[in-house]
Amino acid sequence: MIDLRSDTVTRPTAGMRAAIAAAEVGDEQRGEDPTVNRLLERVCALLGKQAALFLPGGTMCNHIAIAAHTRPGAAILAHRDAHILRAESAGAVMLAQVQTEALDGDRGRFTAEQVRRAATAGSRYEPATRLLCVEQTHNFAGGAVWPLGELAEVCAAAHERGLAVHMDGARLLNAVAATGVPAHEFAAHVDSVWICFTKGLGAPIGAVLAGSERFVSESRRLKHICGGALRQAGIAAAGCLYALDHHVQRLADDHVLARRFAEGLQKMEPVRLHTPQPDSNMVFFELNGWTHSAFLDRLATRQILLGPVGDRLRAVTHLDVTADDIDRALQAIEDILTGRGDGFRRRSRPTR
């Protein structure tokens, strides 16, 4: 099976499994797990932050960070297609009790002027804006990268207005691989940031949220409220440490394969690409004359999986995908679209 639905489907390598099996462990909740503590030190150095917190996954990082930066009745700003708004079940509203305001912008980005206009001091009629959220890379914008200069301007505008800035850095290291800009240079412009180990880095569990000592202290309290107390979490942290040692540089390989996939799709007439030249490891596209279910079902019979995302399809390259897999997937798509190999020919118009 060639699984291109997401980079979250990666499986731990043999080397990572060995590291997990050999992990030194302790009680994480008490701060006594040595492997977790080593991971936190590594991430603090990587991101240039004072303190960090180990959490099971990235959505919990976002929810906790928003609650730590705000107070009930405040407002936050985020892009209209931010993962925080589109894919986290209104967790920020439930946990932090904040109002969200969506900003428009191309490829998941908005401008400093938009931030200045949207941020409010608050009154008896409207909530005070306390937090700006940015996403790097931006998932629903096709894995788009915020250029460092634009990110710095937006964050500076937020700080001018008295807002904190939080970065959803689920794929921050993909942005590093795409641009060559060190992670700490992106992170220097935000007050909190997290990185995920369960996507392109290939670990089975774990994300690390980082920021100031004060922010992480409050985040640890909120983690406990969320039921996030962990015990011998070094088993999971060992996989994350292995990923930092062995899987960061190879993220660039995923980007090459995404471009290979996009170039192949560009040659197919029914395909409309949203990301003709992917910044990172995602390719979004549409198919004229097909429903998602009809196309995906037929593709699955060829042992190939893609993911539907709204009105688009998404392919994500990752640790378990090779160049041969990409070529095989492209050939299967072409065969299905042209009706070759299975006695089926595409209708000239979609069925009603």
Give a quick precis of the structure.
By secondary structure, this protein is α/β, with parallel strands linked by helices.
Largest sheet: 7 strands, mixed
For the record, the count of structural domains works out to 2
In the predicted model, the low-confidence regions spanning at least 5 consecutive residues are 343-352
Strand order of the largest sheet: 2-8-7-6-5-3-4
Oligomerization state:
single chain
Describe this structure as you would to a colleague.
With 352 residues, the protein is an alpha/beta fold. It has two domains: 12-246, 3-Layer(aba) Sandwich (Aspartate Aminotransferase, domain 2); 251-338, Aspartate Aminotransferase, domain 1, CATH 3.90.1150.10. 41% of the residues lie in helices and 17% in strands. The strands form three sheets. It has a seven-stranded mixed sheet, with helices on both faces. A hairpin with a 2-residue loop joins strand 12 and strand 13 (312-316). The longest helix is centred in the C-terminal third of the chain and has 16 residues, at 251-266. Its cofactor is pyridoxal 5'-phosphate. Keywords: Pyridoxal phosphate. This is Threonine aldolase family protein. Residues 3-286 form the Aromatic amino acid beta-eliminating lyase/threonine aldolase domain.
What is the strand and helix layout of this fold?
Elements lengths: L1 E2 L10 H8 L12 H14 L3 E5 L2 H12 L5 E5 L3 H4 L4 H6 L2 E5 L8 H7 L10 E7 L12 H13 L3 E6 L2 H8 L3 H5 L4 E5 L10 E5 L1 H13 L8 H13 L4 H16 L4 E3 L8 E6 L4 H9 L3 E2 L1 E3 L2 E5 L6 H16 L14
Parallel strand pairs: 1-11, 3-4, 3-5, 5-6, 6-7
Antiparallel strand pairs: 2-8, 7-8, 9-10, 10-13, 12-13
Helix pairs in contact: 1-11, 2-11, 3-10, 6-7, 12-14
Protein name: Threonine aldolase family protein
Family: Belongs to the threonine aldolase family.
Keywords: Pyridoxal phosphate
